[in-house]
Design goal:
Blueprint: E1 13-16, E2 22-25, H1 27-32, E3 39-41, H2 47-64, H3 70-79, H4 84-97, E4 125-126, H5 156-169, E5 175-176, E6 188-189, E7 202-206, H6 210-216, E8 254-255, H7 260-264, E9 269-278, E10 281-291, E11 294-295, E12 306-309, E13 320-323, H8 335-338, E14 349-351, H9 354-364, E15 375-383, E16 390-399, H10 411-440, H11 454-461, H12 463-473, H13 481-509, H14 513-516, E17 518-522, E18 525-529, H15 531-545, H16 547-562
Parallel strand pairs: 8-11
Antiparallel strand pairs: 1-2, 1-3, 4-10, 5-6, 7-15, 9-10, 12-13, 12-14, 15-16, 17-18
């Protein structure tokens, strides 16, 4: 990257080709040659939506326009690459039109920063505050290699990524009061929310190339972009009537997003990077991070989150609120949310993301093949009781059968949801067996929030099996009931084997006194707990949960007896 930190030509994005080879590319090359890039290699899972939203998507949509019809979207998608005319328009957009807006260290308009930003107390902080995995302020990760006293030197490439990451995912900690911010008091700003993505369970559909991923993340807008909707680097083109504070100045406001481009590039913080010269070139060693614009409410045109729909919300609350991911659960355990294609009308429930609904609609219209190898990446941050610290990062990816996104065809979707439910029920049965064995041995069941549970290891052992099932079902037609039934039988047999293995380990670990067991009185009732009874109850429950596998074993026993 040049001394100015030119993001257009500077090689700050790691691109992975279909053959696995990696090369560093700038913004223009990443877009114009997106069809030759399999994916981007990024430092953390939460970085993909950052790069897509803060630069790639808004540049593409603003330069080329959003597709207004399914046919226009299909023409772009099936072409598989940007046309020569589109590449010229991208080059013009990132050249004569806005080329000077993408320089990280520009003296007048540094990218995604407020030039001349100064703290009221005149201090700056280390660059560690940009990276959530490094100790800074109240955010002290358990295994951080650096303390706040250590100097962190970020290359311009890394600094650009973490700068954008702060705008999307920053904690809600107290921010440095900035000169020119009328809302700063006593040298600081309080009441800050997290970055906009920190309030979502982010869902990003992915394709076979970066080009396809860009199109899969592009909403179809029948009426085009909203009037006055501009990305952050073109803030001066927004009508004054919208009342937006310039992101290049310290002052900020709480406001709704003016449209898709504004939402994607929302400047939730005011930041200035401070670089120093080293033998290896410029390095960002200090930074100022102060309060920025606050999103009044997540709009319903937010493309990258699923929703929790409430029939009768509390006074002042919207019917639809972003649904966050649950820590400790894999993406496939949340298929019930990903595949919730219809808006709940009779009871509260989940509603999948705008983009997945669009993909289902494109498949229904035969614009997108049902066998298309769609992928989904989920990401999120789990903040502490007070969201000024990051406690956990959530990230996963999985293949997803496009046919399961058809709102009017329930077969494949219901089969997948049944598989997920069976895994959860078998996991609870294992935890029940564990508690019964503990009681039989004279102990107490594990409290809900303590101890290591067999269900965790069991669900982990099913992870690859579920991913193979999802990948295999991407090529299954929704009308092929026989093949779908065979797939469900194979799944149940895999669950049976994994559950039996965990049960045998629990039984082997039970002390001898669990065989004799004990009787526990609860009011007027007596309950007998013995290891033999516990395993019998477990197997009965498992047979009810996995009826196909149970029937297959019954048939095999009868055939063996007849022979």
């Amino acid at each position: 990257m040049t001394s100015e930190g030119n993001l257009i030509q500077g090689e700050w994005l790691r691109a992975v080709a279909p053959d696995g080879l990696q090369q560093s590319v700038g913004l223009l090359k990443a877009l114009s040659e997106a069809h030759t890039i399999r994916r981007l290699e990024l430092p953390v899972h939460t970085m993909l939506p950052v790069v897509l939203r803060q630069v790639l998507l808004p540049v593409m949509i603003d330069a080329l326009g959003a597709p207004r019809t399914r046919q226009e979207w299909a023409e772009r998608f099936h072409r598989g690459h940007f046309s020569p005319d589109e590449r010229d328009r991208l080059a013009h957009y990132l050249g004569p039109r806005y080329g000077d807006r993408f320089r990280l260290f520009d003296a007048e308009r540094p990218f995604a920063q407020a030039a001349g930003l100064e703290a009221l107390n005149g201090d700056t902080k280390t660059a560690a505050q940009l990276v959530p995995s490094v100790a800074s302020g109240n955010n002290v990760p358990l295994f951080s290699a650096l303390s706040e006293a250590d100097e962190l030197l970020l290359t311009p490439e890394d600094a650009a990524l973490w700068l954008l990451h702060v705008h999307c995912w920053d904690t809600a900690s107290i921010k440095t009061g900035a000169v020119g911010d009328p809302q700063a008091k006593n040298g600081k700003t309080t009441g800050n929310p997290t970055g906009p993505l920190g309030q979502l369970g982010v869902i990003v559909p992915t394709g076979q190339t970066l080009y396809e991923t860009l199109l899969l993340n592009t909403p179809i807008l029948p009426d085009g972009l909203e009037p006055g909707d501009r990305p952050q680097w073109a803030w001066n083109e927004r009508p004054a009537t919208l009342g937006c504070k310039p992101p290049a100045e310290a002052a900020w406001s709480e406001r709704p997003a003016t449209g898709l481009l504004d939402l994607l590039t929302f400047q939730a913080r005011r930041i200035r990077l401070i670089a120093c010269e080293t033998e290896q070139g410029p390095r960002v060693h200090r930074a100022i991070v102060s309060a920025g614009d606050r999103l009044a409410q997540t709009p319903e045109f937010e493309p990258h989150t699923a929703w929790q729909h409430t029939i009768k919300p509390k006074k002042g609350q919207p019917h639809r609120r972003p649904r966050r991911h649950t820590s400790g659960r894999t993406a496939w355990q949340g298929l019930g949310t990903l595949l919730a294609m219809t808006l709940p009308v009779e009871s509260d429930g989940p509603y999948t993301s705008l983009l997945l609904r669009q993909i289902g609609d494109l498949q229904r219209s035969r614009v997108l093949s049902g066998s298309y190898p769609l992928g989904v990446e989920t990401s999120g941050l789990e903040y502490g009781a007070h969201p000024s610290v990051v406690e956990n990062a959530i990230g996963d990816d999985l293949p997803l059968p496009v046919n399961a996104l058809l709102a009017q065809d329930d077969g494949l979707r219901e089969a997948l949801l049944e598989c997920v439910a069976q895994a959860d029920q078998a996991a609870r049965a294992l935890d029940g067996l564990n508690n019964d064995l503990r009681r039989a041995a004279g102990g107490d069941p594990l409290p809900r929030d303590k101890g290591s549970r067999p269900s965790a290891q069991f669900l982990h052992s099913l992870d690859q099996t579920m991913r193979r099932l999802l990948a295999g079902l991407r090529t299954v037609d929704e009308d092929d009931e026989e093949l779908l039934e065979r797939a469900q039988l194979a799944w149940e047999q895999s669950v049976q084997i994994a559950a039996d293995l965990e049960a045998s380990l629990l039984l082997a670990a039970a002390p001898p006194r669990a065989v004799v067991g004990r009787t526990v009185k609860n009011g007027d009732k007596e309950f007998v707990y013995r290891s033999g009874k516990a395993i019998g109850v477990f197997r009965t429950r498992l047979a009810d949960i996995l009826p196909r596998a149970a029937e297959e074993r019954r048939v095999q026993r009868e055939e063996t007896a007849a022979a």
